[in-house]
Design goal:
Blueprint: H1 11-24, H2 37-48, H3 56-59, E1 72-83, E2 89-99, H4 112-123, E3 126-127, H5 129-144, E4 148-157, H6 158-162, E5 171-179
Parallel strand pairs: 1-3
Antiparallel strand pairs: 1-2, 2-4, 4-5
Helix pairs in contact: 1-2, 4-5
Length: 191
């Protein structure tokens, strides 16, 4: 699956949109306490959506040397993302892992920090949790070609906590498994 293209970030248009939003909310964007808000919000969103610019193929390059194909699982990687429906944050943790396939079938073993970067790259986009889980799984499959893989995301969504049904603190779990782990997952992927 191809990564999303990098959207162009237009700082001036972003600041103008924030000024318009403040006016639409009955606020004066030129009031002393709000004068810097458009620039701050534009910078916030530039950071918040930086994941579109990450080259996952470059991140998921195998380590050199002969490494034994043993399961690699990182548990409870924290993330914060943004719901594309309400532009509200959702945050939680990811458990991701894979069992490298023997060469020449598999793509090898990558550094542990690279797995964290995959989670961070997809979290730093406008998202829904189900798609984020699928994107992480697809990245593992595409770039590592493992014998088995797993992705488990658990997050709390502020759009559910602060509006609508107003149920704070309810975690949502999304789990995807493949290869040998689809029918026999290791303990971290058994809920």
């Amino acid at each position: 699956m191809a990564d999303s293209p990098v959207p162009s970030f237009d700082r001036a248009a972003s600041e103008a949109a924030v000024r318009a939003l403040l006016r639409g909310l009955g606020q004066d964007p030129d009031a002393p306490e709000l004068q810097e808000t458009p620039a701050r919000v534009a910078e916030f969103w530039a950071e918040r959506l930086a994941g579109y610019g990450v080259d996952l193929a470059a991140e998921l390059k195998p380590l050199p040397g002969d490494l034994a194909p043993v399961p690699i699982i990182l548990e409870r990687i924290p993330f914060v993302s943004t719901c594309e429906h309400h532009l509200a944050p959702f945050e939680g943790h990811a458990t991701i892992g894979y069992l490298p396939a023997n060469p020449p079938v598999g793509g090898g073993t990558v550094g542990l920090s690279k797995l964290v970067r995959v989670v961070q790259a997809y979290a730093a986009r406008l998202q829904v949790q189900e798609r984020m889980a699928r994107q992480i799984a697809d990245a593992l499959q595409t770039h590592l070609r493992p014998a088995a893989w797993g992705v488990d995301l658990v997050a709390v969504h502020t759009c559910m906590a602060h509006r609508g049904v107003r149920t704070p603190g309810v975690p949502v779990r999304t789990t995807l498994l493949g290869g040998a782990w689809e029918t026999n997952p290791p303990a971290p992927f058994r809920g």
